[in-house]
Amino acid sequence: MSSTIAPATSKLALLGGTPVGKISYPKFPVFTDRAIERTAEMLRAGKTFGVGRKHVPEIGEAEEVISQYHGGRHVLATSSGHAALQSALAGLEICCGDEVITTPYTWGASISCILHQNAIPVFVDVERDTGLIDPELIEAAITPRTRAILAVHLFGQPAKLKRLRAIADKHKLMLIEDGSQAHGAEIDGQKVGTVGDAAGFSCMGGKLLATTESGYMVTPHESVYWKGAMIGQHMGRATDGGMPAELKPYCDSLVYTYRVAPFNAVLLTEQFKKIDAELASRRRHVDLLRAHLVDGKFLKLPNYGAGVKPSFHLLSFTLDSAAAGITRDTFSAALKAEGFNTIGYVPSPISDWPRLHWQDYAGPRVSWLSTLEAAGVDYRHLPLPNTRWRVDNALETGFDMVEPNEPMVERIAEIILKVEANIDELRDLERRDGPSAPAVRG
Ligand SMILES: Cc1ncc(COP(=O)(O)O)c(C=O)c1O
User: Fold this and answer.
1) Which among 326, 330, 297, 300 has a CA at the least distance from the CA of 315?
2) How far apart are CA 272 and CA 86, in angstroms?
3) DSSP codes joined into one string, 346-369
């Protein structure tokens, strides 16, 4: 099928022409009247703190709703996604020099949860099309100290969970999922968060499942729930009942403060009621965009196999800059001038970040440097060719299309097709003035 949108050959806005028009989204997140009433009631009643399900039924309610969504798994509501992830590692007793194989192409908190456990991230490269961890590179990175694989479902795309589970099982490793950007994404009928030994999700205000600030851990293992609770929630949780007797002597207030605010527990419950409808809307809009871009030449969305249902927190494109003959940054500048903002979400492989380089570190002291030094880890100059390719060629944009908004999708397609139709002018511009300023997250 050909797109109904004819590519505009009129002059690019970057070169002084008229912009197509600004891309704007409906307000997001949207809280229902019921959510607003319930949270107001919590404040009126002064129910602003509390640890466990017994003292705050709203926490129990949220954990039950989230558990049902994830096939009946144990759920621990937390103060943030980072808290959920670190609770997952602690619940699995991963710490103290253990190696965790993971991706260098993600948000830093996917990695800092490992560092804060005094464990050691081991970076393997990602797949070019999606930026997700490449399962085929994992086995070569396994050592006797490897304890876990931590996969991130970045931009709402589910990582290859079946393959990851098989590798983890073969080598007796734990599988941890970071679903912070992918609530409700599915692969082969399985929701993210339901395949690993534990998963952490962020529910900060900009996420698919938005509260103000919170998160949750999901696990099939009851002991992981309790051990995760012990590091972040203190003995208040123990009064809920059910804590294994052997853990009780170690349950105290030597904790990170990772408990969820009751206010956010209510928002978790209410937001989960509409997530599936919102995901369906995001997917419908992406299908429409794909149909309009079917004749596009240079800017591509990944092709997912059958059975993959991303949740599209962000849209991630890659530019074939060799074929286009211009850099991603000039392409992005042309999109922006027309009204469509895009950035490279990951500005560099995380392994390049100075705060991991104990060898020549000159910044404020951080706790994990001594762990990395003791292990002799050297992250400087890891090759990671696909990660580096994506750092130069990927373009991301927010995509909170939870209300019908076909005209805005058509406008995105119109802008992309207009820029592609004018690629010769952009080549000339770049030859004359050099590439535009980097289109990366600041
Ligand atoms: C992939 C990923 N992991 C972890 C986190 C951490 O979540 P939070 O900010 O709620 O701690 C985020 C949040 O942006 C994220 O995008």
Assistant:
1) 300
2) 23
3) --S-GGG-GGG-GGG--SS--TTH
Q: How does residue 164 score in pLDDT terms, banded at 50, 70 and 90?
A: very high
How far away, in angstroms, is 424 Cα from ligand 1 center?
40
**Model pTM?**
0.97
Question: How do residues 286-327 score in pLDDT, each as one tens digit?
Answer: 999 999 999 899 999 999 989 999 999 999 999 999 999 999
Q: Which residue has the tokens 């912009």?
A: 19
pLDDT in tens, 80-100: 999 999 999 999 999 999 999
**Residues with Cβ within 8 Å of residue 3, at least 6 apart in sequence:** 291, 292, 293, 294, 295, 413, 417
Instruction: Tell which residue, 11, 19, 10, 68, has the closest CA to residue 341.
Output: 19
Count of C-beta atoms within a 10 Å radius of residue 20: 23
Go through the domains of the chain in sequence order and give each one's CATH number. Answer: 13-27+275-347+384-433 (3.90.1150.10), 33-274 (3.40.640.10)
Q: Is 210 exposed, middle or buried (0-12, 13-18, 19+ CB in 10 A)?
A: buried
DSSP code string of 283-322: HHHHHHHHHHTTT-SSEEPPPPPTTEE---SEEEEEE-HH
Distance (Å) from CA 196 to ligand 1 centroid? 18
Q: How far is the CA of 110 from the centre of ligand 1 (A)?
A: 7
What is the arrangement of strands in the sheet containing 299-300, beginning at the earlier edge strand? 299-300, 314-319, 394-398
CA–CA separation, 65 and 15 (whole Å): 52
Q: State how far the Cα of 133 lies from the Cα of 402, in Å rounded to an integer.
A: 28
Say what angle helices 81-91 and 222-232 make with each other, to 10 degrees. 120
Nearest alpha carbon, ligand 1 atom 9: 81
d(CA 204, CA 187): 24
Atom of ligand 1 nearest to the CA of 80: 10
Q: Which atom of ligand 1 is nearest to the CA of 152?
A: 1
Q: Which residue CA neighbors atom 14 of ligand 1 most closely?
A: 107
Structure tokens at 60: 């129990």
Q: Give the nearest ligand 1 atom to 203 CA.
A: 10
3-state secondary structure (DSSP) of residue 251? coil
